[in-house]
């Protein structure tokens, strides 16, 4: 709510600005200005006044909540979950406040719901100068005083704030309006100076109703002493006849000093029903007749303008169409256009638009005659005037006749060039089919580069070469598992090679397939020829690559013969141009011939690149064979050395002394050094195998052993060495135990001998 400059602030705002600095929000039960207690001057009076507020505010809340099918019974508790307060604010503000929890259970959910409408309420309180705010805790703690104050803020905002009378607004304006109307009806007998005692006897309410509805009540017939009856009479009439809800209780009004805010809320409904409606009715009556007449004239003129603009746009569009060159590039298209012109335009579209022009002339005459009776003239825009539209129609007729003559002449010329176009198409199609076959057969250099064929030889299988330095035995096993390679294993796994490994042989059937290029989709292939791309899959051997080179030589010879068709196409193009072929059609034919020439050049370059690629592949196949043979030799020598080590480590040995056993232990260290030398040889072969893997070599028909075999043999060598070491250690321990036993026996024998000598000496002394 924004209060205008110079307009007095409402009563609740002035009270809020007089609040102490403790931060307490304004409350509805706060004593009014110059009033500190009830009729009895006790706390009971304040309680009674608050009770009256609760009744009237509850009725006001329910008046709006019934639109959402809701109601409150206890203002103190029914706003606790925030749902009814949120719906109330949405209804009276006619705004959506957003999503909320429809089934709040926890206090946190209730606080979230309450914060939505409270944020809205606090925002407009801040706009009118109230710095204090309401919080969710005020409502959850059931602080009745603050809850009533919050409801009163809503009433002021949506029932009282928009009231104005003279130079007064809100409360002062409402009081001035009520005072004026009551005194007019009572001829000054009933005085209204406030919103409490002045309304206590019910006369003011009845006078207010009589001021606008004298058919409902006669003030002079009321008994001034029957206060309750007067109040009920006014409340019933307002509820039944004026649809003003009963917010006040007659007994409460009489038994105590009426609550100012409750009375103000109730009186504001009378202002909304009477004063506002009367002003609207008077204003509406003043302009209704004029508005209806002007709206009718405006609709007619708008309809004329709309129809005129649409007809003018159509005439211009069709005139431009007829003045342009027909967009037909063949005899068939031109015949279809002529038929369309006669059927759709001549028999349908043109007669319809002519009727629209006649209707527009009638509408123009009607509008002109109606405005003439008022002394006014009808002047349409320049583009919709009848003079301009008729001139445009004549121009359209001339353009239409010229268009028809142009169509007939163009059709005659197109029939003469159609034959040469068909002949050109026949020759070009045959050459394009052949070029398409050869392009697919050779493939594209860009594709080869993308697949790495130009820079690296093709792979024997779909495998990824290992990266990084060659690991030792334990790490190399993981590398073999990740690649699935068996370099040189004569019985390679089907997963790696797709078939059992065998010596490389030339497959003559495969070479026959390679000799025939493929047929691209949508093109014709030569009868009886099955096309397979030249570079379809890796080559199997040197002989395979040589066969492809021979086929490429034959292709180059055939290309030279096909190039003789190009001059014939150029001659046909010259004849077609001389006979007046449509520009777009001629451009298409010329462009097609140019594309064929470019394709021939590209095919020549493609053949050169394919030859270079095949020669590189030829050299690569030779290198691959050499690497397979080198690996086979190294693997054979290493396997033989490891078998000898296993035999040496497994030989039977016999020791009879500790010295002999220690000699065997010393030999173990020598054996270990020889095994490390073999491991170095194995690492070298593994590095060589990795190099073969980088070249995508997965099969080796020259070798009996692959890396898994060599690794297994090395494991057997190590196992045999460990077993021999254990046996030697056991023999050493056994000999050491035997020596210890011998030494113990000798010591015992010496002790017995000494004992015998001592006993003999004793005997010698006794019997010399």
Kindly describe this structure.
With 768 residues, the chain is mainly α. It is built from 22 helices and two strands. Helix 7 (170-186) crosses helix 11, helix 13 (386-442) packs antiparallel against helix 19 and helix 21 (658-694) packs antiparallel against helix 22. 26% of the residues are buried.
What's this, in brief?
With 768 residues, the chain is mainly α. Helices cover 68% and strands 1% of the residues.
Largest sheet: 2 strands, antiparallel
- The gross shape turns out to be flat
Tell me the series of helices and strands, N- to C-terminal: HHHHHHEEHHHHHHHHHHHHHHHH
Count the DSSP helices: 22
Radius of gyration: 57 Å
Tell me, rounded to a whole number, the average pLDDT: 78
Q: What level of helicity do the residues show?
A: 55-70%
Q: Give the distance, in angstroms, between the N- and C-terminal Cα atoms.
A: 149 Å
* SSE-based structural type: mainly alpha
The number of distinct β-strands equals 2
Strand order of the largest sheet: 1-2
Low-confidence runs (pLDDT<50, min 5 residues)? 1-41, 445-528
Report the sheet-strand fraction.
Answer: under 5%
Characteristics:
768 residues; mainly alpha; disordered N terminus
Strands, helices and their partners?
Layout lengths: L10 H7 L25 H23 L17 H11 L13 H21 L8 H5 L3 H17 L3 E2 L2 E2 H17 L16 H10 L14 H15 L8 H6 L4 H64 L7 H42 L13 H57 L2 H6 L22 H11 L10 H4 L10 H7 L27 H21 L2 H14 L4 H67 L8 H37 L12 H60 L2
Antiparallel strand pairs: 1-2
């Amino acid at each position: 709510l924004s209060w205008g400059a110079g307009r007095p602030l409402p009563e609740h705002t002035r009270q809020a600005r007089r609040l102490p600095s403790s931060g307490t929000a304004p409350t509805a039960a706060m004593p009014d200005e110059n009033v500190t207690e009830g009729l009895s001057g006790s706390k009971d009076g304040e309680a009674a006044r608050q009770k009256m507020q609760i009744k009237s505010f509850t009725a006001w809340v329910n008046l709006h909540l019934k639109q959402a099918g809701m109601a409150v019974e206890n203002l103190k508790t029914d706003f606790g979950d925030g749902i009814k307060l949120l719906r109330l604010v949405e209804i009276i503000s006619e705004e959506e406040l957003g999503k909320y929890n429809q089934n709040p259970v926890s206090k946190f959910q209730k606080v979230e719901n309450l914060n939505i409408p409270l944020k809205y309420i606090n925002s407009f309180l801040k706009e009118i100068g109230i710095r204090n705010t309401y919080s969710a805790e005020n409502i959850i703690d059931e602080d009745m005083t603050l809850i009533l104050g919050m409801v009163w803020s809503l009433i002021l905002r949506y029932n009282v704030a928009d009231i104005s009378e003279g130079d007064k607004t809100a409360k002062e304006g409402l009081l001035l309006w009520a005072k004026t109307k009551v005194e007019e009806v009572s001829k000054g007998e009933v005085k209204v100076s406030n919103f409490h005692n002045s309304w206590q006897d019910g006369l003011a309410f009845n006078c207010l109703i009589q001021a606008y509805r004298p058919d409902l009540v006669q003030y002079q017939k009321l008994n001034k002493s029957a206060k309750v009856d007067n109040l009920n009479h006014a409340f019933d009439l307002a509820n039944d006849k004026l649809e003003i809800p009963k917010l006040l209780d007659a007994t409460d009004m009489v038994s105590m000093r009426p609550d100012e805010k409750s009375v103000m809320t109730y009186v504001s409904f009378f202002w909304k029903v009477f004063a506002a409606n009367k002003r609207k009715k008077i204003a509406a009556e003043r302009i209704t007749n004029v508005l209806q007449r002007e709206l009718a004239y405006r609709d007619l003129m708008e309809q004329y303008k709309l129809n005129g603009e649409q007809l003018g746009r159509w005439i211009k569009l069709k005139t431009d169409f007829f003045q342009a060159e027909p967009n037909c590039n063949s005899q068939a298209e031109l015949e279809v256009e002529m038929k369309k012109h006669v059927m759709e335009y001549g028999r349908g579209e043109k007669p319809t638009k002519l009727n629209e022009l006649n209707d527009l002339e009638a509408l123009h005459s009607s509008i002109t005659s109606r405005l003439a009776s008022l002394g006014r003239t009808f002047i349409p825009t320049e583009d919709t005037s009848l003079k301009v539209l008729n001139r445009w129609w004549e121009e359209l007729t001339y353009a239409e006749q010229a268009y028809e003559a142009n169509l007939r002449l163009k059709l005659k010329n197109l029939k003469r060039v159609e034959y040469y176009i068909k002949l050109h198409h026949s020759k070009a199609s045959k050459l394009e089919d052949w070029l398409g076959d050869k392009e697919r057969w050779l493939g594209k250099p860009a594709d080869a580069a993308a697949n790495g064929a130009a820079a690296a030889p093709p792979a024997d299988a779909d495998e990824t070469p290992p990266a990084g330095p060659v690991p030792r035995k334990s790490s190399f096993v993981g590398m073999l598992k990740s690649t699935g390679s068996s370099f040189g294993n004569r019985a390679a796994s089907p997963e790696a090679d797709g078939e059992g490994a065998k010596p490389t042989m030339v497959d003559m059937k495969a070479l026959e397939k390679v000799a025939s290029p493929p047929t691209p989709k949508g093109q014709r292939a030569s009868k009886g020829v099955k096309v397979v791309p030249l570079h379809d899959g890796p080559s199997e051997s040197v002989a395979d690559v040589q066969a492809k080179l021979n086929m490429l030589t034959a292709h180059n010879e055939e290309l030279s013969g096909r190039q003789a068709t190009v001059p014939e196409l150029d001659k046909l193009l010259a004849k077609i141009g001389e006979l007046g072929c449509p520009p777009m059609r001629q451009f298409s034919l010329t462009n097609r011939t140019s594309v064929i020439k470019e394709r021939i050049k590209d095919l020549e370059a493609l053949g050169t690149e394919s030859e270079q690629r095949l020669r590189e592949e030829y050299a690569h196949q030779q290198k691959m064979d050499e690497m397979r043979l080198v690996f086979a030799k190294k693997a054979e020598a290493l396997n033989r050395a490891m078998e000898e080590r296993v035999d040496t480590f497994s030989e039977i040995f016999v020791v009879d002394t500790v010295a002999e056993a220690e000699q065997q232990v010393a030999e173990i260290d020598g054996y270990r050094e020889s095994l490390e030398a073999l491991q170095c040889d194995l690492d070298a072969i593994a590095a060589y195998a990795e190099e073969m893997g980088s070249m995508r070599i997965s099969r080796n028909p020259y070798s009996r052993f692959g890396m898994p075999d060599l690794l297994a043999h090395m494991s057997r060598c190590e196992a045999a060495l460990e077993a021999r070491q254990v046996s030697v250690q056991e023999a050493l321990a056994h000999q050491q135990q035997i020596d210890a036993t011998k030494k113990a026996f000798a010591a015992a024998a010496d002790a017995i001998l000494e004992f015998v000598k001592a006993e003999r000496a004793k005997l010698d002394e006794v019997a010399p």
